[in-house]
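Objective 1.3, modelling of assemblies. Example input:
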Amino acid sequence: MTEIFEAIKRSAIRIKEAIEYDDTGYSDHHNATGDTQLKLDIKSDLIIEEEFQSVLSVKEIVSEEKEEATPLHVNGKYLVGYDPLDGSSLIDVNLSVGSIFGIYEGDYAGSSLKASVYVVYGPRVELVIATDKVYMYRLNKQNEFIFQKEIHLGEKGKLNAPGATQKGWSKEHKALVDAIFQDGYRLRYSGGMVPDLHQILLKGGGLFSYPSTSDVPKGKLRMIFEVFPFAFVFEKAGGMAIDGKNRLLDLAPMHPHDTTPCFFGSNEEIKRVLSIHG
Ligand code: AFP
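Predicted structure (tokens):
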């Protein structure tokens, strides 16, 4: 697994440079879900593919930017599902973005996830690895990722990050979000899943929700590339991650780009979601 983490670190350093200096414009291409790809989405995807090509333990990779999986090493043990540049539409307004990786064994079910990694490209570059615990690293001037701390969630937090188009929320969900704000929670939502969840993890807890809505009944966020890796991080940090009723890591996609409603948070907030959506 270490060689996979090292490949992710090398890609993160190259992607950081691309974000800082490359053209932020759109390409003429669309990804599997129909989004117009930024030139940076395509470049970040290529960088990661290149770095994984030399990692013999990687059997196959599947990217949010591609329709199907790409086989790499027949005798490899792991499958890697990744979103090379999540929240890339925020780059032109200079907000933080991220890369997300899920390292699976056997198939891409939530229960097959062995580790997950995400990188935040913000004022600083930070990398979080979740295995048995959740470890945070920060990039220094010499381009080395230096260990900072373990991440633990409190039982209850103070932040609320409610995603999706509000006019599509169910009445129950709207009531839940209102009640949480009434209890004094603060709104923190940038539109980038990686920095929004990183903030909740580092500030001790809270709730991030991307529910089922009238326009996207199965949510927007993809199981393999976004939802499962973060569900793993939240559970290992002492929190919970559900689709409203079920534990997210008990789900399995039928197709690489399948999405699911999702709620990530500390235990009190998730119990509250269960009492309404469950
Ligand atoms: P983009 O990659 O198109 O910017 O979408 C980002 C994202 O997938 C995820 O990072 C956010 O949490 C979510 O979309 C925000 O979606 P809404 O704007 O619908 O709340």
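Residues 35, 86-90, 163-164, 191-193, 220-221 surround AFP (CB under 6 Å).
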